[in-house]
Amino acid sequence: MNTNLFGIHGAALELRSQRMGMLTSNIANAATPGYKSRDIDFAAALNDRLAGKSGTEAIGEHTRYRVPTMSSMDGNTVELANEQIAFAENAVAYSATLSFVQSKVQTATRALKGE
Q1: Domain segments of the chain: what residues?
Q2: 66/74 Cα distance (integer angstroms)
Q3: What global pTM score does this model have?
Q4: Which of 21, 37, 46, 97 has the largest CB neighbor count within 10 A?
Q5: Which ranges of the chain have pLDDT less than 50?
Q6: Kind and range of the H or E run holding 11
Q7: Which residue pairs, CB below 8 angstroms and at least 24 apart, start in 55-59?
């Protein structure tokens, strides 16, 4: 995506999408024995992405295992309520960023059409 047109929002949208997949995986594995819940340090990953690293590199370097508040007997570290909250917050931020990008595209399209 062109950073001149979208600013940080293109990179943020990409990272939020990847984070959504990670949070979804955590929720899906809430009952899997030994599963370790993971998340992304979003701000650090975004800074790396803006510095020129690929999305995969930025995500890989800033993926962290969550430390559970209350550990389970089977070694699973997913705390479903926390994962659902993180998912909802990320979904709202993703939607807001997507709306901004769509608005920029519509503005550029109108400008090209001469409207």
Answers
A1: 3-113
A2: 16
A3: 0.83
A4: 37
A5: 1-2
A6: helix 9-28
A7: 55/11, 55/14, 55/15, 55/18, 58/15, 59/15, 59/18, 59/19
